[in-house]
Amino acid sequence: MIIPSYNGLPYVKDAIRSVLLQTHKPNRMIVVDDGSTDGTLEALGIFDGQIEVKVHHENQGLPAARNTGIQASAAPLVAFLDADDVWLPRKLERQVQEFAHAPSTGMVYSSVLDCDLELNPLGPPRKVKARKGEHVFNELYLQAFPMPPSTVMVRREVFERCGRFNETMLYTQDFECWLRIAMKYPISAIPEPLCLRRINPRSITATRGLERGIGYVFQAFDLCGAAAQRTGISLPLCVESRKRLFLRRSLRDAWLWNEPRSFQFFLSKLTGGQMCRLEEAITEALFLIRRLIALISTRSRSGQL
């Protein structure tokens, strides 16, 4: 199993300990220090003899760190754990069982429980749909349902056939990789949460800029389209239409989460940036209506209306 870590000193020891507590012990635990400058490498010394450490002398990014771990490992099953996440004790046991029950399955993932930095749950688990060796490519392409890397276990032969993580992508590289795998292999999912995921404000997901983030999402769809063409797979929706679907959903989410700047950004993308003043007026009006509705609702509940 593989733990990529870049400046993960506050949490990586928790991640390692959660692997050591597994009911099914991994053959090897490979920690890839991706050019950390916070003393992570020195701190790993307390696990001497229990882990193998691979070092990038300069930061190369998360996909490169995962690929280094894949290349260094030789086990028939490969599991990933981000340095700020932890596994529950039966994680590996349950996934190995799933592979045994469905030998043709290429990948198994599970539900996850989102937590704060102290691993206190932020709500109920993110329940995933139970799957037993299902072909999910069309659904994954259209819905982009989450499969957090810390919940994933993959057959080694899958990476040999489908390729590893794309190192040009700092974001959505896991989604792009899962799409390639789903084109060729059935996938299983365990509905019980087997991983605790820290919602870390320093993470890539939390701090990415909208423009940069959307560029990587579109790159994932472009690469998926190219891979589908090479393998003779028909997409359920053409790439350009899928991009517009992403923008429409992002616009909806910005409205639901009360994020006017994001709303205006995605509205601008949908209109091609040709109606800037109108977009600003629409955004201002929509969120003014939203505030009025919220105010009326609050006063109604308090008996002021």
Detailed description of the structure:
The chain is α/β, with parallel strands linked by helices and 305 residues long. The chain folds into two domains: 2-206, Spore Coat Polysaccharide Biosynthesis Protein SpsA, Chain A (Alpha-Beta Complex), CATH 3.90.550.10; 237-301, no CATH class. Helices cover 47% and strands 16% of the residues. The strands form two sheets. Strands 4, 5, 6, 7, 8 and 9 form a six-stranded mixed β-sheet that branches. A three-stranded parallel β-sheet has the order 1-2-3, sandwiched between helices. The longest helix is centred in the C-terminal third of the chain and has 26 residues, at 276-301. The model is unreliable at 203-208 (pLDDT under 50).
CATH-derived topology of the largest domain: Spore Coat Polysaccharide Biosynthesis Protein SpsA, Chain A
Superfamily at the CATH H level of the largest domain? Spore Coat Polysaccharide Biosynthesis Protein SpsA, Chain A
Query: Would you count the extended β strands for me?
Result: 9
In CATH terms, what is the architecture of the largest domain? Answer: Alpha-Beta Complex
Overall pLDDT confidence: 89
Percentage of β-strand residues: 15-25%
Described by the principal axes of the CA atoms, the overall outline is: globular
Indicate the radius of gyration in whole angstroms: 21 Å
Task: Report the top-level CATH class of the largest domain.
Answer: Alpha Beta
| SSE pattern, N- to C-terminal | EHEHEHEEHEEHEHHEHHHHH
Largest sheet: 6 strands, mixed
Share of helical residues: 40-55%
Can you tell me the number of structural domains? 2
Which structural class do the helices and strands define? Answer: alpha/beta
What is the count of helical runs?
Answer: 12
**End-to-end distance, in Å?**
60 Å
